[in-house]
Amino acid sequence: MTSDALAASGAWMPGDPPGRRQFHVFATDRGFALDSGVALRDVTLAYETWGTLDPDAANAVLLCHAWTGDSHAAGRAGRGHPTPGWWEGMVGPGRPIDTNHWFVVCSNVLGGCQGTTGPASPHPADGRPYGSRFPVITIRDMVRAQARLADHLGVTTWRAVLGGSMGGMQVLEWAITYPDRVRSILPIATCMQSTAQQIAWGAIGRRAIALDPRWRGGDYYDAAPGDGPAEGLAIARMVAQVTFRSDNVFTDRFGRDLTDRGRHGDTFGLWQQFEVERYLEHHGTKLGRRFDANSYLVIGKAMDLHDVARGRGALARAMGRITAEAVVVGISSDMLYPSYQQRQIDELLRSEGLKSEYVEVSSPHGHDGFLIEFDQLAEPIAAFLER
Amino acid sequence: MTSDALAASGAWMPGDPPGRRQFHVFATDRGFALDSGVALRDVTLAYETWGTLDPDAANAVLLCHAWTGDSHAAGRAGRGHPTPGWWEGMVGPGRPIDTNHWFVVCSNVLGGCQGTTGPASPHPADGRPYGSRFPVITIRDMVRAQARLADHLGVTTWRAVLGGSMGGMQVLEWAITYPDRVRSILPIATCMQSTAQQIAWGAIGRRAIALDPRWRGGDYYDAAPGDGPAEGLAIARMVAQVTFRSDNVFTDRFGRDLTDRGRHGDTFGLWQQFEVERYLEHHGTKLGRRFDANSYLVIGKAMDLHDVARGRGALARAMGRITAEAVVVGISSDMLYPSYQQRQIDELLRSEGLKSEYVEVSSPHGHDGFLIEFDQLAEPIAAFLER
Fold first, then answer.
1. Last residue of a domain, one of A284, A300, A316
2. In chain A, at which residue ranges do the beta strands (DSSP E only) sit?
3. Would you call B366 an interface residue with chain A, using a CB distance cutoff of 8 Å?
4. B98 belongs to the catalytic site
5. Is 0.90 surpassed by the pTM of this model?
6. For residue A387, what pLDDT is reported?
7. Residue A33 — very low, low, confident or very high, per pLDDT cuts 50/70/90?
8. Domain count of the fold of chain B
9. Are residues B78 and B138 in the same domain?
10. How confident is the model at residue B323 (pLDDT cuts 50, 70, 90)?
11. What is the extent of the structural domain holding B129?
């Protein structure tokens, strides 16, 4: 299986330029047990680090990425990294997460497609991509895999665990699963349990991918370059992209402008695009070049299954396991993870006697505000780390 | 082309039981000119009426239906009518729109699939369904077709024109295009110009239909029963269905319940459904049995093109053509047509010196509130008609 043959997916594959990636390969003598009961063998985590770990290992900070993110939290696009760092403005020397001071770690999640074991990875039994054979994973599986990486790096306790959206789900699961390994948490634009509406959006995207005949039931890795499920993935991404933004921003940015204005007849073509459609198409198509549709499915399902209370009794009981201090961040215009969900986190933590604070980012940009509003995020995050 | 052969679509076809439908066939000596410049020949409008037109024709009320509605505003499901009336609770003897008093008319829109000329109708040139040959239509085209029906029925002036969602778009276009034929209007949960976000949702649905290989570029009417683009249409409907409801209602109704609880392994199946997914699938599949995917595309595009200002100068200038009194209704939890859009209508009408009032329905049900909150709609609508 060469990289060329994999051009039907946007997955990074061994042999591609590693960029800043490093790799942690789990011990191969036994499988990595998943919540589903499946044991995954030959697990590799791809990760990046910035800064230097202190001798007492007390300055480690973990960043957890969102759905289509990866370990490249900071740094340029370039060989091996199709996109610039998703928190480029936040992480670096002299930046709010100052890498002169902190040892920052970010790993590609289990099920991902940027170097960590996922559906495009070779199945140990036959060396061919897992495809439809890849198991369902959970946010907890992702976090337990990251804990192995922490062991490998010599990090017993994270000074802080931070992340937005699905990253925030991992933040909560870290604090609940490993209360003695997390000193503080900063979950952003996230929730304790995915809601029915969030599940609905995810499920619609999954069906769009499955409808694409080029998805081939999940086993499309042998397809010719360009013959993968790009359109299904694009539609799934378009659904998400609308929920990531806001009505107001779309109105301000696109209004009712048509593409290729001036040709009268085009206004009345069924497939004549408004500018907002071109924008969605651009983002949908772009994702297909750097992301694997099966990873999109698997990670999306992990989010739908996200429920910190699962198997732990009541929600308060699950959250009560946390010992870390928290700053919980919401975004005023977030329609996907509305700010009431972050207020609930903060309220529950305080009702459990924990030190928690809620900060609302005032932004028109919707859910994606956590990737945009660096000016508003910088101060609370820097202050949070300095405590 | 028999009805049997059309079972690849959910369109009502000649030969199917007519139910309460009546038909108005336009004069065939010349085409019906559309905004696109195309002249549509052999146009038929299917419509229903309730009550009796007074000798002075002063008691006529027009109801305008929404995207997947039809002329069956009131009445049971039964032969010829796959669904009960969409405003069953509002229209009838002694009901808020009292058919003992008013002569009520509702017609299936141009481009529809329940008896009015649309993509499933025979093309005059060859008698085969239009399919991909059906032109793009606009809300104004729908309204001008209804004006022909009004002429046919002897209705010079509507006492009131009412409708929600796309029905409300027609209400506004009626009042602007024919100011001397409309005495009062009641637009509900609608807008003057579709916004970028509304267009985005519509465009995503269109792409899902086009991705379905069984859509066949729009020419699927010869396909075997059950071999039409049902899944593409279902996905498009699922997107819409989420926007028609609300986060709170989904949480209250479905929460995180899984279907087929109890089988442990199922929780971790990629295609294991949460209850909200089963609900969406139910609605998506149901629509495919009674609606034609091409009509869904054409009517959706008409909504995206909705802009009362198009070709009329500024928005205020377009709205200033209205002479009718207005009651504008918004729904508090509407995420698709947020209530600020109805407030804008009311404010603009008043700033143009017209008599207008804004009424907000307090409802958790989102956009679909106009099909649900009869208790709150009854009083303002009855009072509005009694004026």
1. A300
2. 22-25, 32-33, 39-40, 44-50, 60-64, 91-92, 97-98, 103-107, 160-164, 184-188, 325-331, 356-361
3. no
4. no
5. yes
6. 81
7. very high
8. 2
9. yes
10. very high
11. 4-194+307-386
